[in-house]
Write the structure tokens for this entry.
Amino acid sequence: MLDKNVSTFIGCDCEYEDAKIVLFGAPFDSTTSFRPGTRFASAAMRSESFGIETFSPYQEKDLLDVRVFDSGDLELPFGEPTQALADIEERTATILNDGKIPCMIGGEHLVTLGAVRAVAKKYSDLHMIHFDAHADLRDDYLGVKLSHACVLHRCHDIVGDNKIFQFGIRSGDRDEFEFAKAHTTMHRFDLETLDEVVKKLKGKPVYFTLDLDVLDPSEFPGTGTPEAGGVSFKELLKAVISLSELDIVGFDVNELSPVYDQTGRSTALACKILREIILSFIG
């Protein structure tokens, strides 16, 4: 059993035994290829979450009426991705083995790999839905295979061909787009064809990973690798609510770097979208 964190995301303070979703932070950004700072995201989101309401007028649901437990942040070894990923996998496995759904707040996008390793061991037919500005399909970045630029390639190594569905992608090198043509299903630039994928994946176990830089930097400047041409908050909100039709067995939200947006609007947006994801997935 996990202990409750002293500081929780708003409304996520039920007892562990009663929880359906268990939240934890993975404050790791040691392989960031441009601007670091995502290690501060989970703490910032917990603090700033009390600036929003527990009630969602979009879904007519309230965090106070559902069962979510916040287990706090992992203490991850900075500069050592192998051990950090092992720690994330262990925490995710604990949550899964207790019959609950893991919800991870990154951190850089590499943290997703640790969670997917655990989820794939429980669900052999695991599929993934990936929202992002970047393909993250490099086989290595500067000779290193454990990088946030390689995370979806490493996830493909686990789940295999035609199990990863990517949306919003508008950045990557030539080899990444060629790899996607052969091994993943990539929907470039927007989220418009998501409904087709939702229909296809009904009844299958799905892991959802959200890199917040899928949003346009005009709405979400607080990220380490901003990329022009992204989706709007309303488009993202509609998309994540539509995922409620799927069997989501784990999910994460990552790549908020609060230090690059002193207005706090990026953190506030991240809090709001996490609220909506939780309420959507908890039923």
Notes: The chain has one domain: 16-281.
